[in-house]
Amino acid sequence: MATINDVARAAGVSISTVSYALSGKRAIGAATRDRIDAAVAQLGYRPNAGARMLAGSRTNLLALSAPLHADTYAPAHMTFVLAIAEAAREFDYDTVLLVQDEAVNGLRRMVSSKLVDGIVLLDVDRDDNRVPLVRELDIPVTLVGIPADTAGLTCVDLDFEAAARLSVERLAALGHRQIGLIGHPLDLYARGSNFPIRFRDAFVEAAADKGVALHFVMPEQEPASVRAAVEELRQSLPEMTAVVLNANEPVHTMLLELLRSDGVSIPNDLSILSACSSFPTDMLDPPLDVIPLPALITGRRGVELTMHQLDGFSEPVVELVPPSYITRGSTSSVA
Amino acid sequence: MATINDVARAAGVSISTVSYALSGKRAIGAATRDRIDAAVAQLGYRPNAGARMLAGSRTNLLALSAPLHADTYAPAHMTFVLAIAEAAREFDYDTVLLVQDEAVNGLRRMVSSKLVDGIVLLDVDRDDNRVPLVRELDIPVTLVGIPADTAGLTCVDLDFEAAARLSVERLAALGHRQIGLIGHPLDLYARGSNFPIRFRDAFVEAAADKGVALHFVMPEQEPASVRAAVEELRQSLPEMTAVVLNANEPVHTMLLELLRSDGVSIPNDLSILSACSSFPTDMLDPPLDVIPLPALITGRRGVELTMHQLDGFSEPVVELVPPSYITRGSTSSVA
DNA sequence: CTGAAAGCGCTTACAG
DNA sequence: CTGAAAGCGCTTACAG
Prior knowledge:
Chain A is of the alpha/beta class and 335 residues long. Helix content of chain A is 45%, strand content 16%. In chain A, the strands form two sheets. In chain A, strands 2-1-3-4-5-11 form a six-stranded parallel β-sheet, sandwiched between helices. At the A-B interface, α4, α5, β2, α6 and α12 of A face α4, α5, β2, α6 and α12 of B. Chain A binds a DNA duplex (16 and 16 nucleotides) through residues 3-5, 13-17, 19-20, 23, 25-29, 32, 47-48, 50-57.
């Protein structure tokens, strides 16, 4: 493998000139630059990562802490991981993946061995055990997700509270007075999971504000449980005209299948809105109105905020991405 | 951050002694070792990753090439990624994640910058564009999955052919003479995806061997498509008494839901076997007999084979993990 | 616009 | 059992 010495020799310059030509950190004569570029291309030279880390101030490596809980929904999770790894590449960074219980130890290891320049945390719980560690770490960190106490932290996430309000407001404006809310499985809330709780609480509040009757169910991801949940909604809200889903894709499919076999027509008999979904709802039958969870946007933003910190921009911020509403014809006004 | 010099000074020894004490590469006096350990603990010393990479022969970093196709099934994929990242940790390795179109360029970058000691490839197609590159790379590589031409490559995967034969043999032994096979969506086969094709071809062959009538369908992951597939099976095989699923979890759920609403009793009316599934089939209703796709085993084995190569063990091998059959009561003999 | 040289923090022969 | 020292391949003041 060619080294910077080989390139310097081939181009007839010193290694510092090669280094500067490659980093662009000082002006280089056109002829010199051409000779260097040619030598680099011909030798297939690529700087040695270890040497660069040791001599320079950057490792060009980013740690992605992605602990996976038993109840982690893989597709959404994968979208975030992808978004972050790809965004990192745009800044010429590679991503070191930290999983599972390695969460806290792994972060410590990354930092004290100076392997990475920054960290992005995924899957942040309200009361996340990585947060205390992150506070004392002297390295750029961004949380994708909002813990209970954000003091001193840089965070980014969809504005779930605004998404919940938007859900209620849209349906209330269409005349709906009884709305069923289908949430995630119970244990997610019990564990202190982040966004399901934020969404639920804001939804309850917005419903109260708008004078909308609300019932909340948390089915498991299986047909029988979804069926029972729908029954419960019908019992509690005899005049229910709309359902909001803050749930995973399989629950959507099961619900639509169930309504179909019950002969329920959407949106004539029932309006349906999918809230904070990371999967495409236009593939469903029928396609559903949706307030997307923009994993690509928040994931990428997590990387950008980390890079900003690397550039010395270090004021902690909590960035909330405003929700958007996409119409697919699954809601209508009450007759 | 403490360096090896700080530790050496605190322990009253030379840095080489510290280095050897930490690596265990030569004998150290008990008293000396104690002083070094104490200094390391007190200073919170951890070797600088860049310096280690540059001076040593190992980077302790493994590249995981995990391109995600549009039709990648996230849960199975995530299980592999997890298995590999965790197995790597057991060898004191961290994992650099390479995604998407970065596939080929990313590998090149890893190798020429000497960032990683080895590579594991996931999601290997029959005719994978990473394979030619990997052949010319002078670094340990293991493919999890078997490409069409394995010359010179180290690969590991479930023995899908054996799994297909095992499926047919078990059902044939129970007296089933007409078996429906529900595969993955059509485009997977069209794209030259790896294991679905291997499974299908071996299944067809084994069925012929056993004199079993077979019909093969490839539904999309939606209720209507699964329903149509089942109809097609019933048309083609009027005496069908068993169905084998080589499909993703949602298709399982949809099929069982559909059979339930049709009043089909399992296994009395129909035997069902889930083949090469990476998710737990005992959570289904009813639980299904399964030949598991042991992602944890093959993923971990992929890492182990890479480590073997690092230790100088470099004969290319194709390791096929033998399938196992787990009974859950969803199959029975034909009356 | 370019070069000589120090130094980043380790590992590992070489010596004793 | 331990140490002094070379060297890994870069980056970046320091000089000119």
